[in-house]
Design brief:
The chain is of the alpha+beta class. It folds into two domains: about 60 residues, no CATH class; about 60 residues, no CATH class. The protein has five helices and two strands; from the N terminus they run H-E-H-H-E-H-H. Helix 1 packs parallel to helix 5. The protein starts with a helix and ends in a 23-residue tail after the last helix. The mean pLDDT is about 85.
């Protein structure tokens, strides 16, 4: 299976996709359940995301409400600028934007994607 091609196909179709994986935890790695819990909750993420076995994709569809496009049109006619801000995969975001009608994705508009590394203070 070509995981990258499958992920690309699903996101282009507008699905939200999570990859799922497991790693067996042995008694030698921490038989004490309190210690295991502490490791899982506070240990470095990079350590937890090693030696994983891919188990599949969790694929979700979040359909637009029927009133979304008409409301966007109302906002545009009122002179409001509509933007989309999302944490979705960029290909998923573009597909959802296209489904909204000509409000987000059209030839006369630029699509800007920002990739913010690390934590953003609010």
């Amino acid at each position: 299976m070509d995981f990258d091609a499958t992920l690309r196909k699903l996101t282009i179709e507008g699905f939200r996709v999570l990859a799922c994986a497991v790693r067996p935890w042995t008694a030698e790695q921490g038989g004490d359940s309190a210690a295991l819990h502490e490791e899982l909750m506070t240990g470095p993420r990079a350590n937890l995301e090693q030696n994983l076995l891919f188990t599949g994709f969790l694929v979700m569809e979040n359909k637009l409400k029927k009133e979304t496009s008409p409301m966007l049109e109302t906002y545009i006619r009122a002179g409001l600028r509509c933007i989309m801000v999302t944490g979705d995969n960029p290909l998923t975001a573009i597909a959802v934007g296209k489904r909204c009608g000509p409000f987000f994705v059209r030839p006369s508009r630029r699509i800007c994607m920002l990739d913010l590394e690390g934590k953003v203070d609010s």
